[in-house]
């Protein structure tokens, strides 16, 4: 299998494990390449691959967060119009937050 291998990764945990890795070649402008190299040089990342993997993970988390937010908005829209006033809603929310902080 060309472009695939097995790499040992710590992944900021105490246990080591093997994970299958695929290889991908990308083209980026020189300025972006310099930025990535700078992040590696300052110790923020072990390699340019680590940097790109981190960006992809961040994008995955953001996409999941946005999907959750869209689902919550859809639920809210589907629930209809509330008969409670804004003041009642704010008061109830404050009470719930207070109860959580005490509990």
Can you describe what's shown?
The protein has helices at 30-41, 48-78, 86-102, and strands spanning 4-9, 17-22. With 103 residues, the protein is mainly α. The chain has one domain (4-80). β1 (4-9) and β2 form a beta hairpin. It is elongated and about 55 Å long.
Order of helices and strands: EEHHH
Total beta-strand segments:
2
**What's the helix count?**
3
Class of secondary structure makeup: mainly alpha
Estimate what percentage of residues fall within beta strands: 5-15%
Structural shape? elongated
Task: Provide the spatial order of strands within the biggest beta sheet.
Answer: 1-2
The major beta sheet can be summarized as: 2 strands, antiparallel
Distance between the termini: 55 Å
Helix content range of the residues, please? 55-70%
Mean pLDDT: 87
Radius of gyration over alpha carbons? Answer: 23 Å
Number of domains: 1
Uncertain runs are 1-7
């Amino acid at each position: 299998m060309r472009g695939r291998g097995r790499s040992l990764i710590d992944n900021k945990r105490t246990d080591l494990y093997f994970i299958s890795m695929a290889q991908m070649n990308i083209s980026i402008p020189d300025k972006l390449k310099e930025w990535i190299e700078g992040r590696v040089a300052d110790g923020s990342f072990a390699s340019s691959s680590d940097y790109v993997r981190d960006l992809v993970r961040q994008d995955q988390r953001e996409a999941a967060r946005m999907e959750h937010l869209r689902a919550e908005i859809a639920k809210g829209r589907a629930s209809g119009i509330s008969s409670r006033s804004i003041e009642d809603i704010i008061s109830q929310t404050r009470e719930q937050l207070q109860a959580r902080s005490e509990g």
